[in-house]
Recover the amino acids of this structure.
């Protein structure tokens, strides 16, 4: 099966790191096609960045229209463009935050999220509320680590994330940790080993959920608000996105 893995930011090296994490868990017959938008911010750390990231996800789903894509994974913890992508393709579309929350809820009665900037913690709280996981998550903890600092992550940065996770487990009395950034995917194994609790990376969880939905023959509903977007003309830089 072919999974289109979209890194919604434009950092090529992060796209490669995310692709590696996805391929490490993918089934032997799963092909991971890793892409990123042709425009937009190098990392997504605020609402302003997220607007362009969502448009970039829509761009990449549109560009894939002629190719055989069995599922789409949106590899940014804000799940930018998730609903738009679900309208634009009938293939299952999984956001890594939504996937990680589901996985954590399967493994613990209560979990905590450890993320990058402190402001991102607020965005994650909005997502938990939107997805209905706010009663399962006991706390979201920022580390004030910028997203791009996760590339070629230093031992000191890993130690800060580990410390935040230990504090979260203690303070929140939670049983599992969700990593709140796609850029943390390469750290998942190390943190799992050090913390001794389930540590969930949304990228790998999303890939396995995507494979499961495809294996079950399930696709996104096209009834109601996930019906395909009505054809219309787009103008300016967005002209190619119209149908
Ligand atoms: C992410 N930003 O997963 C998010 C999450 C964050 O560029 N990839 C990004 O840490 O804000």
């Amino acid at each position: 099966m072919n999974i289109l893995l979209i890194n919604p930011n434009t950092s090529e090296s992060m796209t490669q790191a995310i692709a590696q994490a996805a391929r490490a868990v993918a089934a032997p017959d799963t092909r991971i096609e890793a892409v990123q938008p042709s425009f937009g911010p190098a990392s997504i750390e605020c609402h302003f960045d997220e607007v362009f990231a969502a448009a970039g996800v829509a761009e990449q789903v549109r560009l894939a229209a002629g190719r055989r894509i069995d599922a789409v994974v949106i590899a940014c913890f804000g799940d930018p463009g998730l609903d738009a992508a679900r309208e634009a393709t009938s293939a299952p579309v999984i956001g890594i935050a939504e996937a990680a929350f589901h996985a954590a809820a399967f493994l613990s009665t209560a979990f905590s999220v450890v993320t990058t900037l402190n402001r991102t913690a607020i965005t994650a709280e909005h997502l938990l509320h939107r997805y209905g996981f706010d009663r399962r998550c006991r706390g979201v903890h920022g580390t004030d680590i910028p997203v791009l600092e996760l590339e070629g992550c230093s031992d000191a940065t890993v130690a800060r994330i580990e410390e935040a996770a230990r504090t979260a487990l203690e303070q929140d009395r939670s049983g599992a940790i969700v990593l709140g950034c796609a850029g943390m995917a390469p750290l998942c194994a190390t943190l799992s080993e050090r913390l001794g609790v389930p540590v969930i990376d949304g990228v790998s969880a999303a890939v396995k959920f995507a494979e499961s939905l495809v294996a079950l023959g399930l696709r996104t509903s096209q009834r109601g608000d996930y019906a395909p977007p009505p054809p219309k003309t787009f103008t300016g830089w967005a002209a190619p996105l119209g149908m």
Summary: The longest helix spans residues 155-172. The chain has two domains: 2-95+205-241, 97-202. Strands lie at 2-6, 31-35, 71-74, 93-95, 111-114, 137-141, 176-179, 199-201.
